[in-house]
Amino acid sequence: MDSNKPFNQQCYDLLRQIPKGKVVTYADIAHRLGGKAYQAVGNAMANNPDVIIVPCHRVVNSNGAIGKYALGTEKKITLLQEEGVELDTDNGKVLNLDKQRHTFL
Questions:
Q1: Active-site residue, selected from the candidate residues 15, 29, 33, 56
Q2: I need a surface site. Which of 2, 12, 52, 64 has the fewest CB within 10 A?
């Protein structure tokens, strides 16, 4: 990653690499950026200025929990389902997280 860019921008650049139908965790992004700043990644998602272009709805918790979203959890669930992500909506989790997880190159 380009360490000359602000942290949030580095997060958004990674988000643009996640294809429809895949998810990543806050930890995945933090690790890809060379650290363990999981909360900072969460803050970057919360401050995403363009939630449709930069798909922060594809970021979930490490335990598969769907987590929060600027436009509301129901909207996040809808977007993920429309993209083909399999969810357990009763428990608010991604099914088979490892199978649906994107791996950064």
A1: 56
A2: 2
